[in-house]
Amino acid sequence: MASSQVTVLVAGSWGTALACVLADNGHQVTVWTRGAAQAAEINESRTNRKYLKEAELPKTLRATMDMAEACRDADAVVFVAPSSAMREVAKAAMPHLKPEALIVHATKGFETGSLKRMSQVLSEELGRPEGSIVVLSGPSHAEEVVLRLPTTVVVAASELGQAEAAQDLFINDAYFRVYTNPDYIGAETAGAIKNIIGLGAGLSDGLGFGVNAKSALVTRGLAEIGRLGSAMGAHMLTFAGLAGVGDLIATCTSRHSRNYRAGELLAQGLGHEEVQERIGMVVEGVRTTQAASKLAVQYGVEMPITAQLHAVLFEGKPPLQAVEALMGRVRTHEIEETVLFNRT
Q: Residue 174, Cβ neighbours under 10 Å: how many?
């Protein structure tokens, strides 16, 4: 595999983990950060302890605060900014990008105000076709990736050549396997909505409801992902794959998941602002709950789990009352309601 110059924007937990994969693959990797102390720590100590306490970073990975320096020679740029900062970071990077640079993003969320997917935001700011921007998603906790534990993800783009270029960039035989998928809308939608269900899973466990309740929550959560995703133009089979059920399992069963841990704190009666302060990093599921509630109305789809979590997060509804509302819904049919896997 030929060595490429790759830039990762920004140096959070997932961005740092992906930078490690790329460095392990022999690429020249630069991570951009706004923080002088963080850049110095990465370059001098080979650590990023705020985000990944146990990680020792490759010696070939370097950090910079200079966006022009980071991007001007990059063959590929991987955007891993929080959804709320994606547009700002893209605007800053745009003047320095080579026209032929491969663009990948690995952020799971919607832009709150516009309700746009991240590929739409990047397309607008970078002046590139939406389908040429590669979405990297799947069950992939950063804490496991930096320990080189086996991980499998999907890269999605309607332009097959771009997806395969990203596959070549990230894949290695030791611990990071990569599949391609043309359904980038499905990959993005699933990656965003699963964070909401992760909040619910943590809340369910925090309330002591057991495996039966969480299994039902995850399954019905997948139905909500499918309903909204299908309405937005995704293929239902994507939700049975790595970006769908695979990522959903990882998020709803591991304490590595910020969304799961946030749900546990919600069960203790904390508000969403205090929850995010306790976690100390962005909890995408909180913002995504706001966006998905509006998208459900926009596309005319029913998302009862999302609606009840919205009520807990933003309307002061006690978690137990939200559970009672879900359990007391009007009886209905499972298959006729979800219409799983019937798209052609």
A: 10
